[in-house]
Amino acid sequence: MHEFSLMREVLSMLHRSAAEEGISRIESVCMKVGVMSCAFAPALETAFEVLSGGDPLLEGARLQVLEQGVVVRCRQCWWEGETEPYELLCGQCGGGEVHVIRGEALTVDSYEGRKCPDGHRQTDGERDEGQ
Ligand SMILES: [Zn+2]
Prior knowledge:
Distance between the termini: 24 Å
Strand content: 25-35%
Shape: elongated
Largest sheet: 3 strands, mixed
Order of helices and strands: HEHEEEEE
Radius of gyration: 19 Å
Number of domains: 1
CATH class: Alpha Beta
Bound molecules: zinc ion
CATH topology: hypothetical protein PF0899 fold
Number of helices: 2
């Protein structure tokens, strides 16, 4: 499934970011999903649940998916604003030569987690940390 490979990338990005910030446990993740990104929010939620299961960093974290509308810039008059997905017309001159500047991407907006109080990673006994 498409969403699973997307989510795998998101999770590895979260792992890298959390390691940099010294975060040992992520509690919630907020993602923005462009309406033209071809990713289906409920499928992303399922993928997140499945892939975060058993992951000491992410297990039990909540995922919030926010849909993001399409923003275009007109090549004719430089108007910039939201438009209907799949129609993609300039809101000012009605021209169809627009450049999509938002709405195709899938991004992590923010996440919340806990840092280890004493700077040590909490591990469950002999669990192998992997990468
Ligand atoms: Zn225009």
